[in-house]
Write a structure and sequence with these properties.
With 101 residues, this protein is mainly α. It is built from 4 helices and no strands. This is Pyrophosphatase. It holds the Pfam family PRA-PH.
Length: 101
């Protein structure tokens, strides 16, 4: 399951990069991950009243948090794919369960 998702995120990211002239050098993966962490934090701050709501409803702010969390997950999986990391094996070691489909 994770390997499939990694390939799907890689394909989507590669297409986006090509369409927008983005060079995904080795540092790009870590820098994008850091950027997405900031965006999740910003969405969290809005939702919890620690940031400006910008006129958004609670449902809109929850959707923003979900969207940014999806971006963060995508960039975690892109980094893992780029570096050839065995995330499923790491989940088994660290979380003590086997990821299933």
């Amino acid at each position: 399951m994770l390997a499939v998702m990694m390939r799907q995120f890689e394909e989507a990211s590669q297409k986006y990069a090509e369409e927008n002239g983005i060079v995904r050098d080795p540092d790009w993966y870590m820098l994008k991950l850091q950027e997405e962490i900031g965006e999740v934090t910003q969405a969290w701050n809005r939702l919890t009243g620690r940031g400006r709501s910008k006129g958004k409803s609670e449902d809109e702010m929850k959707r923003d948090l979900a969207d940014e969390t999806a971006d963060l997950l995508g960039h975690v999986l892109l980094l893992a794919h780029h570096k050839g990391l065995d995330i499923a094996g790491s989940i088994e070691r660290k979380w003590r369960f086997t990821p299933s489909v």
